[in-house]
Design goal:
- This protein is mainly α.
- It has one domain.
Length: 70
């Protein structure tokens, strides 16, 4: 009976370890997904900044044209 109990304990420990590994993998996947979302947000912010800069440059060009007219 001693051996049977030891085998059961080992099986339970292995199952617990597998569950922990699965949980860790799920957490890693969630973190990766979060990073991807963060990257998307960062890209959107950069695009907005570039758009603003572009708009600013357009205004400068328009002012130069107006100065040349005068």
């Amino acid at each position: 009976m001693g051996r049977g109990e030891e085998e059961e304990e080992e099986e339970e420990e292995e199952e617990e370890e597998e569950e922990e590994e699965e949980e860790e993998e799920e957490e890693e996947e969630e973190e990766k997904a979060g990073r991807k979302e963060g990257r998307k947000e960062g890209r959107e912010k950069e695009e907005k900044k570039k758009g603003r800069r572009g708009h600013k440059k357009d205004r400068k060009k328009e002012r130069k044209k107006e100065r040349k007219r005068i």
